[in-house]
Amino acid sequence: MRDIDRNIMKLNRICLVLLLSVAILATTRAQIQPSARYPQYWSYQGVDMLLLGGSVEDNLFQIDSLTQQLDLLASVGGNYVRNTMSSRDPGNEWPFHMLPDGKYDLNQFNPQYWDRFERFLRETGARNIIVQLELWATFDFYRENWLVNPFNPNNNINYNLRRSKLDSVVESHPVFTENNFFRSVPEQMNLGPVLWYQKLFVDKLLSYSLEFDHVLYCMDNETSVSSDWGKFWSRYIQKAASLKNRKVQTTEMWDPHNLAHPMHFETFDNPDIFSFVDISQNNHQDGDDHWINGLRQFEYLTKMLLLRPVNNVKIYGNDGGPHQTTRNAIESFCKNVFIGAASARFHRPPSGQGLNERAQSVIRSMRMIVGASDFFKGVPANHLLQNRAPNEAFCRAITGEQYLIYFPDGGDISLAVGMEGTFLIRWLDVMQSTWQEPIRARGADGTLNLIPPSSGHWIAFISKPE
Description:
Blueprint: H1 2-30, E1 33-34, E2 42-44, E3 47-49, E4 51-54, H2 66-75, E5 80-84, E6 96-98, E7 104-109, H3 111-126, E8 130-136, H4 143-147, H5 161-164, H6 192-209, E9 215-220, H7 227-243, E10 250-251, H8 262-268, E11 277-278, H9 287-303, E12 310-311, H10 326-339, E13 343-346, H11 357-372, E14 379-380, E15 385-386, E16 394-398, E17 402-407, E18 413-416, E19 422-429, E20 434-435, E21 439-442, E22 447-450, E23 458-463
Parallel strand pairs: 4-13, 5-8, 8-9, 9-10, 11-12
Antiparallel strand pairs: 1-2, 2-3, 6-7, 14-16, 15-18, 16-17, 17-23, 18-22, 19-20, 19-21, 19-23
């Protein structure tokens, strides 16, 4: 009888382990993660996807019009937003509790800040909109923003200037890395009092975000500090997730515009620490330079067996703004999609298009392209374009089956299809998000001549007739 009881108990334990394993696998499958079939793209809830987005703000959780912004994005096929944990804009909340004397107690949190954050996660999750979260909003810790930041020793009751080794005034640009706040980790200055409260902030953030499956984690915005900082926080987040039987995706965003800068290779070469890559700073480039510099990194990652999702959470460009032009923003967005980036998002105004009507049209058109073609099977293929002028056209192809050609402003090129026969050509007006009637064309000597219907942004989708 005792043997039977022992066998039953053993069987129950096995069943429990199996049930837990199934539950963990189901949870893991639902989470945002690199695609098993196409590792440079994302998969969410078991579906491979391209992330497309734009928004009016970078710290989207702080704005009153959150749901309207998310609904608008979803209505045009968008599924991706950036969210910095920034508090520097008028009307923003800071994460810590302010005492009657105007100082902060870093042991107490501000419920309004965290209520906004929780609502943001809930509303984006309800719409299947992927969030790229930035822990440390770099510019909140310099110049005039540092003067009012709760972490400034002058602004809290928890540590002073001498003990924290932080300056109360940091007047330089973040590129000079003159705030020791970013040297608190053990591998740098090991500033225990500061690091304690940094961890407290991150723990609070994770207490919300780890309850959701649609969050990607970026350590910083345009950072120039030692990689020790980003690596510390990436590992910290990964460990916290593991303790909850979760797996999270992390990266770092570096400041240099040149992707060949050594800083970027701290991300490229360390997939165990940074499970995806962000190359937003490449969007300061334009024309063929933008395409070539981006493609070079894809080729490097592939050759080194390090290929994984490559995101663009910030695409710059707005006429009258500080970085690039409106035309460059639209071109960069489309080229990022064609080159094989896992995400493309218009930066907030005035530095980007945000989610204005132009941005809406481009997002909608890119989603139409993904839906019409076997998009994820394609690869960059500019070598198939003949008689191409600089920045005239960009190709993505499944050779012998489907071709996508993006024309930034009209053009006249030949496409080497490598075979005779009839092809179906459909033209998409990117800024109107409308298809032209399909036309049939025969290749001559294995090539097709392609001339867009007019100037402006056009995409040709070429396939064999069914």
